[in-house]
């Protein structure tokens, strides 16, 4: 019998794991779980844990310190993004003020002609999108 893997954890590289975990914790309403290693911080979704406790298939976020961190450039550039997060919201306009208050900034490049998503940068410079769900 073959067991398929279950996506458990997405890890974002950054210069300050605690600061970035606090940002996404505020945006998503998730709990920051500081551990013994200051170079690694977990973000716990409501009612869930991070690996190995997270056995029901919900994905968690973690953040790890990279000493020579360079923020991604997008679109294109010397350090292109490797991936980004899409956060579904009923209304981008209603969700945007809280995301900005948490520390995000609106990216100057907005490729959606229909307005179905808007691109932001988190405090470490990772692009992410609010997507009309």
TrEMBL record:
Domain VOC: 6-133
Pfam families: Glyoxalase_6
Lineage, broadest ranks: Bacteria, Bacillati, Actinomycetota, Actinomycetes, Micrococcales
Superkingdom per UniProt: Bacteria
TM regions (residue ranges): none
Protein name: VOC family protein
